[in-house]
Amino acid sequence: MNRLFSPLGLWLALSALPLPALAAESGTGPLDLTGSGFGVVAIIAFIVAYIVVIGEEFLHLRKSKPVVIAAGVIWALVGVAYAVHGDDHTAAEAVRHNLQEYAELFLFLLAAMTYINTLEERQLFNALRAWLVSRGFSLVTVFWITGLLAFFISPIADNLTTALLMAAVVTAVGIGQNRFVALACINIVVAANAGGAFSPFGDITTLMVWQKGVIKFHEFFDLFLPSLVNWLIPALLMSFAVPKGKPAAMEEQVEVKFGGYVVTALFIGTIAMAVAMHNYLHLPPVLGMMTGLGLLKIYGYVIRRHELKGGGYVVGPEQFDCGDLTPYFKPRHKPFDIFISMKRAEWDTLMFFYGVVLCVGGLGTIGYLAHASHWMYQGLGATGANVLVGLLSAIVDNIPVMFAVLTMDPSMSHGQWLLVTMTAGVGGSLLSIGSAAGVGLMGQARGVYTFFSHLKWSWAIALGYAGSIWVHFLVNKALL
């Protein structure tokens, strides 16, 4: 009996299941496998993987692991299905297309993450945090300042880094004020997600939309007012619940390390170069980002030489007198190394992104996305479907949702593409688990900012969500 469940047995069982008439002849183009055993097993594999992803907080299993495995399973099923029908090319071409899309986004994100990690290592973010906690602002003022900064920093830095930075400020200022910390964290999550929605660099979903060429760089700023409203409505409602008081200023001084401001200028120049290459030369923006990464590497050499020359660093084990331990000794303070900044990139996120792109691409090749597109965009209409995308982003990560929409490529107006870009970005604020910023802050302010503390204010966030859609229809009606 066990032999029936062997890989060969499974393959024979699947190949025996009926396929739609579209697949009757080999070489006739894409197959509709949604009604076949291959398609059923593929969708089950994706659902199981995503259940594990959703349970990351409880299982403590990195979210990239199940989706990477699911991606391999799904494409193996696609490959077998096409091979059974004598087609050895279609599946391979489809997976290569998905890999090319992933590679462009992967390199873009790797360059951006390396810059952010370098700025963090140069103490730029810590200096900003120290300045804020040493001002002696009232709790209400800190609530508004951290939200405002999160809204305007996240369009350049990613929303997770921005949220963690601002959360460090509120947890330092609000010691013993758990109610304030919880409210401020909710405010930061909403602000960071809203700020990331009107910039190609603010979120992976907006980056995907920009690189796909659906929305041009300057057109993202049409979402500024709707995104601002998305944050301001819940922020205003929550501000009435912020405790009064003015905690004592904390004496903390952090000095930006050598080269920190130059790295900031290089990052801005790199973004400008990526935009210029995409807008004026019609080249992939990743080319500009990788060129900027090369410039950062060169400047990293300058920083390293400066620290080796005047920083008192130990260069090699020969300068120690530790006997036989010298080969194993690792100095605590080491000179700058750009590859350490690259190593500290969010590799789990990058690998999760790989799994998502391949999983969704495989399901699209099977035919599920065509059916979903028909049901959503023809059954519900563009507006209804795009609002639903935002609601789904609160439960399912917005990356697979947005990639699925881009893969479907529904026929809709420019204003509707702007709408789905915004809803996919801000919809995750409805629940704490709906965005990387929310999940990250639940870990940083563990026991204070929780799923249920966020849920108590979901009604206010939903009002902001509805308000942002209304404002979009108001100010961008000519584009709809």
Keywords:
single chain; globular; mainly alpha; 480 residues; disordered N terminus
How would you sum up this structure, described in words?
The protein starts with 6 loop residues before the first helix and ends in a 5-residue tail after the last helix. It has a domain at 34-103 and 349-435 and 447-479. Helix 5 runs parallel beside helix 13 (285-310), helix 7 packs antiparallel against helix 8 and helix 8 (159-173) runs parallel beside helix 19 (436-444). With 480 residues, it is mostly helical. The chain is built from 21 helices and no strands. It is globular.
What order do the SSEs take from the amino end to the carboxyl end, as H and E? HHHHHHHHHHHHHHHHHHHHH
The helix tally amounts to: 21
Backbone CA Rg: 25 Å
Distance between the termini: 60 Å
The low-pLDDT segments are: 1-27, 312-330
Structural class: mainly alpha
Query: Biggest sheet, in brief?
Result: none
β-strand number: 0
Helix content: 55-70%
Strand proportion, as a percent range, falls in under 5%
The whole-number mean of residue pLDDT values reads 85
Outline the secondary-structure elements.
Elements: H1 7-16, H2 37-54, H3 56-59, H4 64-84, H5 90-121, H6 124-133, H7 139-153, H8 159-173, H9 178-196, H10 204-212, H11 224-239, H12 260-280, H13 285-310, H14 338-343, H15 347-366, H16 368-393, H17 398-408, H18 414-426, H19 436-444, H20 451-455, H21 458-475
Helix pairs in contact: 2-4, 2-15, 4-5, 4-15, 5-12, 5-13, 5-15, 6-8, 7-8, 7-9, 7-11, 8-9, 8-19, 9-11, 10-17, 11-21, 12-13, 15-17, 16-17, 16-18, 17-18, 18-21
